[in-house]
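Example record for the data management plan.
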Amino acid sequence: MRRLFWLAMGITIGALVVRKLSAAAEKMTPAGIGASIAAGLRDVADAIGDFGADVRDAMAEREQELRAGTGLDAPLPAVGEASLRRGAHSADS
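Corresponding structural encoding:
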């Protein structure tokens, strides 16, 4: 029984080692190296895209703050109100 256990253990460990070595050897082939480089470039492109989206969001938020602070988004006066205001300013002068 003991010998059967150790035989099974050896076969299992041997199979795992062969699988790991095969995966490592596949990564060292030109196709494997190309695939890992491509994956790395995709990760970099995703990171740059995320950074750009964050910058655009921050820009839009800051623009809203600036517009609110300067009153650029205030509604325009009606035509009649504008002439009344001009007349009031010229009468004060």
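Summary line stored alongside the record: DSSP finds three helices and no strands in the chain.
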